[in-house]
Automatic annotation (TrEMBL):
SUPFAM superfamilies recorded: SGNH hydrolase (SSF52266)
Gene3D superfamilies linked: SGNH hydrolase
Protein name, per record: Lipolytic protein g-d-s-l family
Pfam families reported in the protein's UniProt record: Lipase_GDSL
Signal peptide per UniProt: 1-18
GO MF terms, alphabetically ordered: hydrolase activity, acting on ester bonds
UniProt keyword terms in alphabetical order: Signal
Organism annotation: Colletotrichum kahawae (Coffee berry disease fungus)
Length: 284
């Protein structure tokens, strides 16, 4: 999903730049970006570390769930600030709500967003090392990003968007209490029912995914916590066949299916397409 990641980077960079214009015109720029989330944001320090390098497989790029670097790396690079990426593929918002897992069979337990925040507030790096003096300086005026929730429903169909939102709202409050000068960005995921994964589920499950995504988007977008929310649903709608996928460099059917197929055993063989840059998704 490398090309989509680049577009997402541009979208988020604009949103990040808008925060100081809206509320911090006289304040200094961000000292760092600190990300909490799942495989959308895992930059190789997450799932690969907790699985001792066994997952994701070598069909992915250096421990990321894509064929290149992830959006957070683009944003941090564009802003020329340090990145502290605590995201872990398979993570849920809270393991107390629903446990998250990674691995080809989703059998390796992973830290949730709540756990990731505990690690950060305990002054540990994403690699688990104690903060150095330079790390402490880097997190004086950070931009926190919360990008999670998709796995809550994928691991438990009975979880509601309201439950996931409450966890994220509480997480934001804890981050603000610890870092009053920080800003917070939340991200609404694209319509989960339209992920390539949707090909393998029935219509009822698809409806549950769509309803969950829409409600989570409404809750995050209407939040009074002070966070800026980036809603990815309109952006990904532009990649649909009936919209303008070619304008973004994708094939007309580039949003349907994925380039990498079979990594999770859903097909007998593992295959990789020959036109990855024309596809929106790298895997299911």
């Amino acid at each position: 999903m490398k090309t989509a990641q680049a577009l997402l980077f541009g979208f988020l960079a604009v949103a990040a730049s808008a925060i100081p214009l809206q509320r911090r015109a006289s304040a200094p720029s961000f000292s760092s970006i600190v990300v909490f989330g799942d495989s959308f944001s895992d930059n190789g320090n997450g799932s690969a570390r907790v699985s001792n390098g066994t997952w994701p497989s070598d069909k992915y790029y250096k421990g990321r769930f894509s064929n290149g670097i992830v959006w957070a790396e683009y944003v941090a690079g564009n802003l020329s600030i340090p990145l502290y990426d605590y995201a872990v593929g398979g993570a849920t918002t809270s393991n107390s709500l629903i446990k998250g897992y990674t691995g080809p069979k989703s059998s390796i337990a992973v830290p949730s967003v709540v756990d990731q925040i505990v690690t950060f507030l305990g002054q540990k790096t994403p690699q688990g090392d104690d903060f150095s003096a330079s790390d402490l300086t880097a997190v004086t005026t950070p931009l926190f990003v919360l990008f999670a929730g998709a796995n809550d429903l994928l691991f438990n169909a009975n979880i509601s968007a309201s439950q996931s939102y409450q966890v994220l709202a509480q997480a934001e409050a804890e981050l603000r209490d610890a870092h009053p000068t920080a800003e917070v960005l939340t991200i609404t995921p694209p319509d989960l029912s339209k992920l390539p994964y949707g090909f393998f589920i029935d219509n009822l499950a698809k409806q549950q995914l769509q309803t969950y995504t829409n409600l989570l988007g409404e809750l995050l977008g209407g939040s009074k916590t002070g966070a800026v929310n980036v809603d990815l649903r309109p952006l990904f709608d532009d990649f649909e066949y009936y919209a303008t996928p070619e304008a973004f460099g994708f094939a007309a059917l580039g949003k349907y299916g994925s380039c990498l197929v079979g990594a999770y055993g859903e097909t007998p063989n593992v295959t990789i397409c020959g036109d990855a840059e024309r596809q929106v998704y790298w895997d299911e």
